Amino acid sequence: MASSVVWVILALLASIxxxxxxDPTDGFxxxxxxxxxxxxxxxxxxxxxxxxxxxxxxxxMWVYSTDKPFKAGSPTKPRTxxxxxxYDYSSGVWQFEGYVxxxxxxxxxxxxxxxxxxxxxxxxxxxxxxxxxxxxxxxxRVVEHDVYDRWMRMNVVHDVGANKLWVYINGVLKLEAKVxxxxxxxxxCGVYEQSDKNNYxxxxxxxxxxxxxxx
Length: 215
What we know:
There is one protein chain. The chain is mainly β. It has a single domain (about 1-215), classed as Sandwich (Jelly Rolls), CATH 2.60.120.200. The protein has one helix at about 1-15; strands at about 30, 40, 50-55, 60-65, 80-85, 95-100, 110-115, 125-130, 135, 140-145, 150-160, 165-170, 170-180, 185-195, 200-215. It comes from Vanilla planifolia. This is Alginate lyase 2 domain-containing protein.
């Protein structure tokens, strides 16, 4: 509990400029990631290569609004997403980091999620969605403006014990939010269709990392 309080204080100081040189990953250690940690979910009726590519370190993921879900019989919407596996967590402070690029002309989809692994409803504690060039918390609060056609460093910190999360864009704290409580969680990124979408949706990711807090 004490460590959670310390992290909350540090995040608050960062948000008001208390230590401008601080990086979101300070105090965290990256965990090893290999290809086996990246489970790619894609429309079940098309080959992976038709919805995903990996070239020069960039994961490119795309879907069409007419696509099938990731498995037959699923009521979910079209997606091409990386599900981080091997690092599901239910305690401690964890962090997702990646550089994301969203091309202009695409809207109405999720680029990053904190997902519950136990089948609870609702299934997520965080969805960062793109609508008309804005990155939003679900369909509500704006997290970042003018996201099209540029690379953004995204860091998402989740303190399970404190039921809180923080979202940083390019090292700047943009969102602090309360979440629903303890569960088993995992990170996802890519493209998952939402409302008011285009026919074609795409995001690109590079330098994906997962961290655990050291203290």
